[in-house]
Structures are given as structure tokens and as C-alpha cells.
Design brief:
It is built from eleven helices and ten strands. By secondary structure, the chain is of the alpha/beta class. Strands 3-2-1-4-5 form a five-stranded mixed sheet, with helices on both faces. It has a five-stranded mixed sheet with strand order 8-7-6-9-10, with helices on both faces. The structure holds 5'-O-[(R)-(carboxyoxy)(hydroxy)phosphoryl]adenosine and zinc ion.
């Protein structure tokens, strides 16, 4: 099936054409980073306005690149949540209008599910994982660990109790006076830093459960800055590397514990923080040691984009085969849960 997908949950406006839930024919992304940078974070009202300005252009770009016309599109998929409601609305109303005009089915999709299943796309860089796999979503709003038993079948294992990993990167970057998005800036500086210079806490390290917490680590950095001042040069690089190492250590340790506890030999990292070079490096090394196969999509597919909706759009649309417009009930939702949310208790302490 030839599907057009639209993503506008935060500050990227994106449209993609995906065939059979596997092949990316086009994936156009308009980033709003320069718009929000001067405010140090995403300003929701500005995000909505820029989505309105950009959404038609990215759709045209995607169609052009794929070499198809709107009449050729057999179904539409759009992010319905979680995200900024005003931003989501732009993508949703655009998708609904196009689907209605061409009398095609249209489905609302979960952004977290899209991150978790991006690796099911055909990618030159890697093979697809088979089910089940452990999926770690590390983004600006989420740090969640799941077992993915199949498309649409997710078991939540653990999540952050306070800040998300990306949020911790962004907040610490702000304290250091670094530009938004903070994760990118810290990653870049940390490449030349010494990660052992500061011994920041590894939150929840000794806990047997698979939950995370990053607000204490953020406070530890803040207290250090109160005492020592904002560092520069090599000292700044060392601080970034030490903070990053603390975050990444916990993410990899818990993700591998999740694999072990669930007897799963495949680990998928997804979401914007999965672009982080040290996370990728440590995960690669640790997975080899633990005999776990690691799957991480290329960076352009880890940050928000519409192609990542492809596998789940195909899954939902294929059950509506032959139907005309179906999008009446799609609503923008700021929060949205995913799959079975009961915790595993029997094997959690193995
Ligand atoms: O998945 P995403 O694009 O949007 C959300 O769904 O939140 O993730 C954005 C987050 C931001 O917090 C950003 O700072 C972080 O991903 N990020 C990174 C890197 N690139 C993006 N964090 C650490 N290292 C990176 N290289
Ligand atoms: Zn995201």
C-alpha cells in the first residue's frame, strides 16, 4: 500500500511516502530549531504557527521526491499524540482534509509506537529485528522500556519517574549556556572531554526495577555549578562528558537488564537521544559482551520524522482495506499510553 504519513507532534514538520510499511520513498523534514533556539526551548504557539506555514510544502516535497501524486496515495497516517496539542492539530487536520478530499482511509497514530517500530523499515544500514525485542525510547519527553512482542503488542517494563533523558540533556545544556537542542550540543562537546573527571550519580543504579530517574543527576550538576561556576574550554568538555556518561551508563545498564530479565536477545534504541554517539558506542560494546543484537536506526530516523509512522500506518490501514474516509474520530492528545501497562512481577527480580 502507498501511504502518506504526517508528523507534527513537536518542532519538526514532516511528511513521508512509505510503501508497504517498509520502503521509504520520501521523508521530508522541516526543522524549527532556529525558530526556538533564541528561546532556549520549544515555544508551543510558535511551533503551531510554523507547522501551518510548512506542512503543505513538506507534503509537496515528499510527493515530488517519491514521484507520486496525491491521487496515488491509498491511505493516510498521522501522529495523534502524545505531543503539543496545537502542533498535533495541524498535522491531523491536514491529513484528514486530504484523506476526505480523496476519500481514502486515515488513521491517528501513537508517536511512541512510531519511535519503537522505526527499525521495522527497510534500512540500508541494518537488518530488521525479529520479535520479540526490547525497545528503549529515549526522547525529549520519554524514557520508556518495552518488550515489543509484535506490531501493536507492547509490554511496558519501566519508565522515568521524573525527567526524560533528553529533558535532562536539554536542562543541563541550558544551565551551561549551550544552545537548544541541548543534547546535540553536549554530545558535540563531550567528544573531547574526560568522562571520569566528575563522578556524577548513576540514578536508580542499584534498584532492581527498570525505572529511571534523572532529576537528581540534574540537581547534582546544578550544585556543582553553584560551587565551581560555569566552566569553559576543556573544563566544559569534561563536565559534558561526565554528565553524558552518567546518563548513558544507566540507560545501557537498564536496557540490558531488561533483555536479561525477559530472555530477549535483541535490543532497539529509538528517539532523539539514540543519536548520541556515546550511547551508541557503549550500547554496541555492552551488547557484544552480553550476546545481545543491537538495532539503532540512523540518526535522521531517530529524531522526529514522518517515515517512522510507516510500519504502524500500514498495519492499521491494511485492516481497513477498501474503505473510504475513516478519520472522523482522530483527536490530538497531549498524553497517550501504549500497550499493556501492567508491570511484570514474576521475572522482574531475576
Ligand atoms: O525524539 P525527539 O526528536 O523528539 C521527541 O519526541 O521528544 O527527541 C528530542 C530529544 C531532545 O531532548 C534532544 O536534546 C535529544 O533528543 N537529542 C540528543 C541528541 N540529539 C537529539 N540527546 C543527546 N545526544 C544527541 N546527539
Ligand atoms: Zn519523538
Amino acid at each position: 500500500m502507498l501511504v502518506l504519513t504526517i508528523e507534527s507532534s513537536c518542532d519538526e514538520t514532516s511528511a513521508a511516502v512509505v510503501e508497504d510499511g517498509r520502503s521509504i520513498l520520501a521523508n521530508a523534514v522541516a526543522s524549527q530549531i532556529p525558530v526556538h533556539r533564541r528561546y532556549g526551548g520549544v515555544v508551543p504557539e510558535l511551533a503551531s504557527r510554523n507547522h501551518i506555514r510548512d506542512v503543505h510544502r513538506v507534503i509537496e516535497d515528499a510527493l515530488d521526491e517519491a514521484g507520486v501524486a496525491l491521487e496515488d496515495i491509498e491511505g493516510f497516517g498521522v501522529t495523534a499524540g502524545p505531543g503539543l496539542v496545537g502542533s498535533l492539530l495541524v498535522g491531523i487536520e491536514t491529513a484528514k482534509a486530504l484523506a476526505y478530499a480523496f476519500d481514502r482511509p486515515c488513521v491517528g497514530l501513537n508517536h511512541l509506537e512510531a519511535h519503537l517500530t522505526t527499525v521495522l523499515l527497510d534500512l540500508e544500514e541494518m537488518n530488521r529485528p525479529t520479535f520479540p525485542y526490547v525497545g528503549l525510547i529515549v526522547s525529549g519527553g520519554h524514557t520508556d522500556l518495552y518488550v515489543v512482542h509484535g506490531l501493536g503488542d507492547y509490554e511496558l517494563l519501566g519508565r522515568t519517574r521524573d525527567d526524560a533523558a533528553g529533558e535532562a540533556f536539554d536542562k543541563v545544556a541550558k544551565m551551561l549556556g549551550l544552545p537548544y537542542p541541548g543534547g546535540v550540543a553536549i554530545d558535540r562537546l563531550a567528544r573531547n572531554g574526560d568522562p571520569s573527571r566528575h563522578d556524577f550519580p548513576r540514578p536508580m543504579w542499584t534498584r532492581k526495577n527498570l525505572d529511571f530517574s534523572f532529576s537528581g543527576l540534574k540537581t547534582a550538576v546544578s550544585l556543582h555549578l553553584d560551587e565551581a561556576g560555569i566552566p569553559e574550554g576543556q573544563d566544559l568538555a569534561d563536565l559534558c562528558a561526565s554528565f553524558q556518561e552518567a546518563v548513558v551508563d544507566v540507560l545501557v545498564m537498564k536496557a540490558l537488564a531488561a533483555c536479561r530479565q525477559n530472555d530477549v536477545q535483541r535490543l532497539v534504541l529509538s528517539g532523539g537521544v539514540a543519536c548520541n554517539h556515546r550511547l551508541r558506542q557503549l550500547a554496541r560494546k555492552s551488547c557484544i559482551g552480553a550476546d545481545v543484537d543491537l538495532f539503532v536506526a540512523p540518526p535522521r530516523l531517530c529524531t522526529d520524522n514522518a517515515a517512522m509512522l510507516g510500519p504502524i500506518a500500514e498495519d492499521r490501514l491494511s485492516s481497513l482495506d477498501g474503505r473510504g474516509f475513516t478519520g472522523y474520530d482522530i483527536r490530538a492528545q497531549s498524553s497517550m499510553s501504549l500497550g499493556r501497562t501492567e508491570r511484570k512481577t514474576s521475572s522482574a527480580h531475576r
